[in-house]
Write a structure and sequence with these properties.
Blueprint: E1 3-6, H1 16-27, E2 35-39, H2 57-68, E3 73-76, H3 86-92, E4 95-97, E5 101-105, E6 108-113, H4 123-132, H5 135-142, H6 146-166, H7 176-185, E7 190-193, E8 200-206, E9 209-215, E10 224-228, E11 233-237
Parallel strand pairs: 1-2, 2-3, 3-4, 6-7, 7-9
Antiparallel strand pairs: 1-10, 5-6, 8-9, 10-11
Helix pairs in contact: 1-2
Length: 238
């Protein structure tokens, strides 16, 4: 048996092939897992639990079927779908977990994060994140009409695309000092996160201890999963 970790699927009607791949993954690969963790950005946009997009329904139903079969499904907010709440959990059968969260992964304490808070060199993004994570901003946003919310979400998507085009990749990657700080804070030696779309396993030392940072891949061109069992963790693309 194994525990599976995925992130950054960015499901949307514009990428129907990825939605189909995700559903196949849930029905085949994930059905035999001990648990499935989705570490953020499952959806491209989530304007509120009362505005679940029709294009998401099949994926959400497949998640519910997996959870009902006995495989726990844990979901973390990403920078695209941070407004998922109780109703999402009800219809998907999943459990929302905090960012960050520490779990016992076959005897290894492991820190789970989406990963955007590690990108401390990107000051503009961190300011934006602080704004949209403010409960007052969220309450005001959710009070708007469906049309207004969708328009605002699309506006922010376009702004994000333009900003990324002008930034160096290094700025949008995890800052090593931030990584070491959060791992020290939680007193763990293994971290799993997504967000940066740079799948890799980084081994380094901190205070003479071996440390491991595992970065999950995105699903823009193909599927990507981290498979962990009692012996090891392995990144796979499919």
């Amino acid at each position: 048996m194994s525990t599976l970790f995925i992130s950054d699927l960015h499901l949307s009607g514009e990428r129907e092939n990825i939605s189909k791949l995700f559903i196949t993954f849930l029905k085949q690969r994930a059905s035999a897992a001990d648990a499935l963790y989705i570490l953020g950005d499952l959806f491209e946009v989530w304007p509120g639990d009362d505005l679940i997009q029709p294009d998401y329904q099949q994926s959400i139903s497949a998640m519910k079927q997996l959870a009902d079969s006995g495989v726990p499904v844990f979901v973390m907010h990403g920078n695209r779908d941070f407004l998922m709440a109780e109703h999402f959990c009800e219809v998907s059968g999943s459990t929302l977990i905090d960012d960050p969260t520490v779990i016992d992964l076959y005897g290894s304490p492991t820190l789970l994060m989406h990963g955007d808070t590690l990108c401390t060199d990107d000051g503009d993004y961190q300011k934006f994140r602080t704004m949209v994570r403010d409960p007052r901003w969220q309450a005001e946003f959710l009070s708007k009409s469906a049309e207004e919310r969708l328009a605002i979400a699309e506006k922010y998507r376009e702004i994000s695309k333009a900003a990324m085009a002008d930034k160096k990749m290094e700025i949008m990657d995890a800052n090593q000092q931030a990584v070491e700080s959060v791992m020290s804070e939680h007193n763990i030696q293994q971290l799993i996160h997504g967000h940066t779309h740079r799948p890799a396993i980084h081994d380094f030392s901190l205070n003479k201890k071996p440390m491991k940072r595992i970065v999950l891949g995105d699903w823009y061109e193909q599927g990507s999963v981290l498979v962990c069992n009692e012996k090891k963790c392995k990144l796979e693309a499919f």
